[in-house]
Amino acid sequence: MGADLRGSPQLVELIGRAAELDRLRDLVAATVSGRGALVVVAGEPGIGKTALLDALAAECEGAGLSVLRGAGTELEQQIPFQTIHECLASGHGEHRPDVAKVMSQLRAAGGEAAAGWESSVTEAAVEVVDEWCAHGPGALVVDDVHWADGSTQLLFQRLQRALPTLPLLITLAIQPGEPRSCSAASPTRLDPAAVLRALRADGAIVLDLAPLGDAEVLRLAERLSGPAHPSPALLAGLSAAAGNPLYVHELISAHEQRAAARDREATATGIGFAPDASTPSDPAAPTDASAGDDARSALPGSLTATILDGLQHLPRPTRQVLEEAAVLGSRVYLSELATVLGMPVMKLWEALSAPVQAGLLVDAGDRLVFRHDLVRQALADGVPQSARTALRVQAWQSLAAAGAPVERAAEYLVLADSYEYLRIVDWLVRDVAALAVRAPAMAVELLERTLPLMDGDDPRTRTLRGQLARALLRAGDPASAQRAATQALDAGGGVVVGETDLRWLLAQSVFQQGRVDESVAVAEAALASPQVHGATAARFQALAAQGHYLLGNPTPCAQAARRTVEMGESSSDPYTTAFGHCLLAILRLSVQESAEALELVDRSLVQLANQEIRPDLQMAPHLIRGLALMDLERGPEAHQAFDAALHDCEHGGNVFLTWYHLGKARLGYAEGWWDDALAEVDAGLEGFDGLGLGQSLRSQASLIAVHRGDNRTAAHLADRSTLAHRPTLLHPGNQPDDTPGGRNQELLRQWATALVREADGAPDRALDLLLEVWTQGVRSLPLASLHALGPDLARLASMSTDPGLLTTVGDALDDLAATRPAQCLRATALLCRAAEARDPDRLEEAARSFSRVGRRLYVGYAREQAAVTLAALDRSDEARAELHAALDVYGTLGAAWDARRAEERLTAAGVAAGRRAKRSPGTGWDALSGTEREIVALVSQGFSNPDIGARMYLSHRTVQSHLTTIFSKLGVGSRVELAVMAHQREPGPPIGTPH
């Protein structure tokens, strides 16, 4: 009877969970309508989390949702992305192309030395989930998240931020408690409470499962006992369960097994009787007032003992196999277990069929799973420690010999308390490199446990120290990787990881700590070694050149970059040759020699051809090309270059991904596509920011906010940029970043701060700040780099009461324009001279020049100044016409602050606008930009975010950011509502798009 009930846990274990199940049903209905959510089911072991997940999965399937299920396990906690991989593979198997994409990125060659690899895999997994949701609403149901690997836990947080645009219900079961790891020596210590706090802070719905009340325990006991109601003795003893459904379940099961044993004994001895109404249903139950206490004393004193007591009826061979399986983990793969135990699969199944029928094991497709991990723990704890260790070592040996995935075999060694290291050294030498890529924390633990036991003269010691450095680097611990690489180099000898590889690992280790000067020293020391030559020497030279650039040393950087080109060409290594030319292009770009930069980067692209970007020596030639073309005011070509750059940055060059978003944001700002620019800002702030460009992204958003009249947001963003001297991958200290990139970030921040001051009513302070930046520079930033300030500097100078300022600024702009072919700069100089001369015709010419290069905001500046000039010349009607033209430009941009300023200036000059300024709508269909309308059209056709990104050359994050804005403008809450609205309305022609 009890066994049959265990086979249908939902029938008995959801008593007392009606409120939680109703809440989940509401969320399922919301997901069907397109609104996603993340739910955390929290509670102690045995409280009913798994049963609730089972019921939820059934509800989801009944409502038409596709369901992916998975669970964290103690054994696999150290394998990055293992839990989400299990979930994704549960849909259509291991060989799905989208799952293979994630796993290929996880196992990417060379990835062990790449910063930000985890971010790349996370984004690939998000794209897989997004593609899956494009076919209909889905549910991701994951149990035991407290055991999930750290990478998967971070992925859940990333998915949570994407839920506003996905029809996805994520439900996670977690057991709060102390930080845990799969072994005492493990470096991986996850804190379930911290995970729960982070999810809750991001808006997760948390269902805390409380113990059942007395009435609910009674209902559960009656349901479990079936027609024979529980005896008074049993009911009295149930208080020991403290409202825990699993404990109630096991107490009743143990009670029934003992009663059955007594019945069998009575039948065998012929001493049986049939109880009547006056006889207690439990023949052993006392009938006086002390029945409850006597019953409690007869029951096992712990849940573990209760579980074991309920298993006494199983045949000894079956119980032995169960115990062995329990020692090896919560999942029982029959083929693996048969290999480890040396049993035929059918004989093994014969032993396990009874536990399956009894509900102790649950059939999960390709494996059996223990009904509850407490059952497994109880069985495993019944095996002596020495036997558990021997069995786990035997499992490693058997699976390694059978060619199982390296991480599957290694799991058992990690759990083994001890082993003879001589038995595993050769295996480590052969397989630990693969293990370091797939499960770096596991590789670190095994190597750190084995190396102290080895003879220092053993040549394999140096090899394994090198592999330890690689694993530590992959695990995100570059400081420890540096120590391991240094020890390996000092040891000498070696058979696999040679001196050259060790030096490269050492250079990467210090580089990833932000100690760029030391990475240069390591690279230059390697170049002095006779063992480093050919293409390898070119690679070290490239690393040294990159370091000099990041340190702000342009002359040594240029020399090293030219040597990189020479060494790459002489060793027939087109990658390092391309790297050298790309770096030379960056140097020319940093001094605004954009034409030369374009020529150099085009050479780089020819040499690179179809090669992918190497994760351990990253470059972004298409990005540099886009930046050069943007400075040369070749907008359409710049957009095409940025489109190509996205592939580079998402496949190997992920360190540059934030720079890509910043470049797109700058171009969107310059051309007046501000919603597009803000989408890129949001996407950049969401991702891996190894270069520390978050400050520039916020400054760029601040500039847009101030023009749109939201000075509070603008000031907040500018202040956050001020505080942004935070440690980054390449600048770990808290001192100002004095690299070229750092100086450019400071320039952008000062620009935003100046406009915030002006909007606050202090144009003189704004002008003083811009003049200070212009005349003194930003920590030696070349004057040519300051040209972006020109239009605002000219506009503020024209508003100043100091008549000499326009002359001073005009002279500076003329000098700068003479050295650069930028039409925008020449138009700015013309604006300044025309304002000084009060020449409206030349101001009209400046407006046309700005228009030709797509600088719409500055067209408005020129029209505004022309209106002011005409008003001063008492040509009021013409002034009003120019004002209207300026207001139309500002209205199209949504530049409310600029429109207000223009109206105030003309009112002060005695010219009223005569009509309200055109306002760009903030909500509704007409508020959508061209890019946003294009995205709406694709969503209504059923395209996923990755598909939309591929068609429009946008990153997955950028599409997500656009959709969030679209939902807000249209007042919809899901893709379904958006598609319905799009089909109900015949869209008008796009407002325009930069593509």
Word description of this protein:
- The chain has 995 residues and is mainly alpha-helical.
- The chain is 64% helix and 4% strand.
- It contains 49 helices and eight strands.
- Strands 2-3-4-1-5 form a five-stranded parallel β-sheet, sandwiched between helices.
- Helix 26 runs antiparallel to helix 27 and helix 34 runs antiparallel to helix 35.
* Major sheet characteristics: 5 strands, parallel
Ends distance: 69 Å
Whole-number mean pLDDT:
82
Gyration radius, rounded = 35 Å
Can you list the strand order of the major beta sheet? 2-3-4-1-5
The percentage of residues in β strands lies in under 5%
Tally the beta strands: 8
- Report the structural category: mainly alpha
Ranges where pLDDT stays below 50 over 5 or more residues in a row are 1-12, 182-188, 271-301, 723-727, 988-995
Shape: flat
Oligomer: single chain
The level of helicity is 55-70%
Question: What's the gist of this structure?
Answer:
The protein has 995 residues and is mainly α.
